[in-house]
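In the previous chapter we treated chains in isolation. Here, by contrast, the input contains two separate entities that must be folded as one system, with a combined length of 654 residues.
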Amino acid sequence: MTPNRMSQLSVLPFTTILTVFTGLPLLMVVLLSFWTFDGLEYRPEFTLANFAAVFSSPVTWKIFGNTLRYAAITWAITLVLGFAVSFYLVFHVRNLKLQIGLFLLCTIPFWTSTVIRMISWIPFLGREGLFNTGLMQLGLIDQPLEFLLFSDFAVILTYVNLFTLFMIVPIFNAMAKIDKNVIEAALDAGATGFQILRTIIIPLSRTGIALGTIFVVTLVMGDFFVVRVMSGGQSSTVVSAMKNNIDQMYYPQAAAMAVLLIAVVLGMVATILRVVDVRAELAK
Amino acid sequence: MSKVGEIILDKVTRKFGAVAAVNAVDQVIEGGSYCCMIGPSGCGKSTLLRMIAGHETPTSGRILIGGKDVTHVRTGERGTALMFQNYALFPHLSLTDNVAFPLKIHGLGAERRDRAREMLARVQLGHMADRMPSQLSGGQQQRVALARALITNPQVLLLDEPLSALDEFLRLRMRVELKRLQNDLGITFIHVTHTQPEAIALADKVIVMDHGLIEQAAHPREIYDRPHSPYVARFMGGQNVVSARVLTVGDEIQAEGAEGGRYAFAPRAALRAGQEIRFAVRRDKIRLDQGPAGGANALPGKVINVEYQGTFVKVELVTPQAEEFVAHLPESDFFAKPLHFGDEVVARWQPQDVCMLVGSNNSSGDALAH
């Protein structure tokens, strides 16, 4: 067997899984979005009515706006946290064992399921929750804080809690590859700490930032569970709107919305990859 | 020699925990000189260099550059530039931006790129100004590092083992270029190395270090010809170290080796009878004969290795002196009467070729120990 044939064979299982479980369903969704639906049944007749309905509805724009807002805020917060944690681990913890230990500490929340981690915020943030009770007993407030739970605050908090690690891991990885001598060379040129951060560390961490951004943005854009539970049903995103459509058997409209969402996310990922050549950087 | 670029080390000490990497070092390095610091790894030479550069702060003592106390001045503000062993180029910047970086930090506008290009042309890389560091060979990267270090017109250029990552051929070529550059610029070069021929070939002053102390600091000829201690003699090479005990002092020192050999030489230091001494004899001052042993300044031995070196022949002996003993014989002498493995010979030298080793550092100075 030639090496070429061998490598083709070794990618076959993964190719099969991707094609059968991702490629074909995706194709179905795209096809479905052009099918005709008359309120009772849908037929394989080409129509743009689903897209027209989606585009003309003000709700669509509202939920897209809402989703993008969640994504942007979560991205900004996880980026700052992820960068700061990685920076601390790479440049301040000199001891490699301690560095690995602290890194593993960051992953501990991931030993439990997402649902449990999310749900466990509820008794903490609720009206009679630990946080409110604590503040009231300390005498800092006399009314429970209402915005803590079933609000945008709760949604963002949960996203940040769930997704920060996806920012930390790639940024840590990129930062750990920075040659310490390069930083000393910048110091030798007279650069201040802030100048080094801006001209050396951030540019050299950009692969990690790009990968982390892709992870966090796609995770937030694809979520409906967190937003439904943590906003108490008061807020909705594209996927939760899609779920409503599906619950009401409006499959073609849900498919049209899915196609739109995929296009938006692909556009964002493509933009990121244009700015940062992740492939070339990872190959180093 | 001017005050510009003059470096004064005043009781400079750097401790890491209880260990003194550099221990109360006093030294004056003249402005505009080429100074090599040499020693086995862990001897403190790199720490000393990093303190001069400002990447390390002395635990105590002062460092003066050009007459100004810079002990606590920030790195980059003290008129020094450091060239790193692995070059430490910025991987995300083009050659021009790499070289222009120190100017950018100092707030220069667009002109910085022109100056960077001029500097790149000076190190013969003008045609590669827009490439990235990863596209260059090791020798080219080194030139970029050199250009980046020189762009701020430093008083002192510090080089941390600059040639160690290059192959033999490039190393010799860059050595010549460094020396020429130093002549052209007239600034102080301080070059850390663990390669003896490099230090001897380049330096106006060689500083030999061991265990955080300066063992000897002098012109390379002085270091090579008149080593201060057994350690310097062994580390710099080219010498045989012989141990003996003083028998009589007078117009001539008489000494006896543990193996029973008699040694006689002119007194060069205050010695007393019964004192244990060590002295050095250069390898090229040794003559070998196959006659009977006897007489002063003779050491019997057996040939264990013969290496032809082109201009001379290196003959290694085992002798009753429990230390490596080597003779460098002129090639014509050797081939007139060749020696072979296992031959019994007597090594002889003249009294005036004996160099008393007054320093007490008796460590092996094995250059391979790192």
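Chain B has nine helices and 20 strands. The two ends of chain B are 36 Å apart (CA to CA). Compare these points with the single-chain example from earlier in the chapter.
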